[in-house]
Design goal:
CATH class: Alpha Beta
Number of strands: 7
Number of domains: 1
Largest sheet: 7 strands, mixed
Strand order of the largest sheet: 3-2-1-4-6-5-7
CATH architecture: Alpha-Beta Complex
Shape: globular
Number of helices: 9
CATH topology: Spore Coat Polysaccharide Biosynthesis Protein SpsA, Chain A
Distance between the termini: 60 Å
Strand content: 15-25%
Order of helices and strands: EHEHEHEHEEHEHHHH
Length: 216
Amino acid sequence: MTDAPSTIPIIPMKPLSEGKSRLATEMTREQRAELVVGMLRRVIGAIRSANIGLFWVVGGDDRVMHLTRNSDGVWFEELGRDLNDTVTRGFERAFNDGHSALYLPGDLPFIKPSDVIGLLRSSERGNNITLAPARRDGGTNGIVVPHGIPFLPQLGRRSFARHLAQAASMGISVAISYSQGLGFDLDTIDDLESYEHMEPGLLRRLVPQWDTLAHR
């Protein structure tokens, strides 16, 4: 009997200067960059606290690279033409190295280690895909693909339905993982205001220097 393949979390990122453009009407570029870094730290922290030995961050810039490497992760400059191509190539690289693959976005402000553990447990037998739906736009905030299953990410609005349809067409069973930590990503000012009501002080926990930035 052989051990099941380990799973590599893959987090695609943009350069910080390009991140969260929908917040630009209310936040400076520096504020947006710090918010993105704060959320990425939380995602990485959840992965590491879930006792996963290795994770990959793809794309971003020098600051993302240093954060990844200082957290004992592996950073790749870029793998694909766009988000879906990047995640697809990341999955292929993980499979070629003998691993299963886990897609996670870098903007999950509520994510906890238990969310990551729950995703992995749903696919631990290695014969089903696990999907975590986004609460707002029908998107997908987590995908576990067991080693060697040729599943293609179709991320974006309403991607959860597309992923379900693809799995059905392939005859692959799907587990669905619902949680606050995986359900809520942060893209707009309305998101941030809603999340501050859900977890008062969230912004300052993500960005401890927020008060200083706000007065510049």
